[in-house]
# Entry
Amino acid sequence: MTTLAAPPTAAARTRWRGTGFGTQVLVLTQRSLRALVSDPRMILFSVLQPLVMLALFSQIFSSIAQTPGFPAGVDYIDYLLPAILVNTAMQSALQAGVGLVSDMKNGVLARFRSLPIRPGSVLVARSLSDLVRTTGQLLLMVLFAVVLFGFSPSGGVVGVGAALLLALAVGWGLGWVFLAVGAWLRNTELMQTVGFLAMFPLMFASSAYVPVGNLPGWLQAVASVNPLTHAVDAARSLSLAQPAEGVLSALVATAVLAAAGWWAAERGFKRPMAG
# Structure
């Protein structure tokens, strides 16, 4: 006697739509961090580059502390490190875009497209994993500066911690801009070229290494409108326990950049893959 199968229940007929957004972000973030930890070379060079920059700049430009216009009673390392924190966060933001392009090229994201994964979760996970990596870089840099160069600003641990958090916020906002650029360019070499062309004028035409008043006249005009100048000045004020009027404007600008970058990155990411 043939037995008829029972009709599928409503639950069985419901199509599985994947996990929630938060779970997807957590799993994808862990994936990116495991890829970083599994390659010691990536850890070494991601830490070594900012430390070399700190060592070189603190020695090459240390005589600037003796020039007119330099803040009185401030050691150059105390003046420099907040700027290095912001610059390192900005360079790490570029790597977020480069990492996204690499995932696009090696086929990882093509496989993700066949799964019930929201495009936004991939982008958020990339930004969070790079934020974790940047946090490690900045903490090691502060430790390196304290041990080897006597970094001891008047703001103490609280001021340095606030400057570090501000640098992370600025880097995270810029990371979304570079994620958007990477999602549209989809070329690693072009992405790096565009990123470095954008970063070097921002870094050197600013108050990062010398007071703006010590720059040539035309460069003072550029530095005064350079957004990096305002971010560096805010981080430096926090570290040196000075009035930090620019902190709020730096955070607002970061939020605007992050929102615009999110919007552009999602649309670029959803474009069909070439080839």
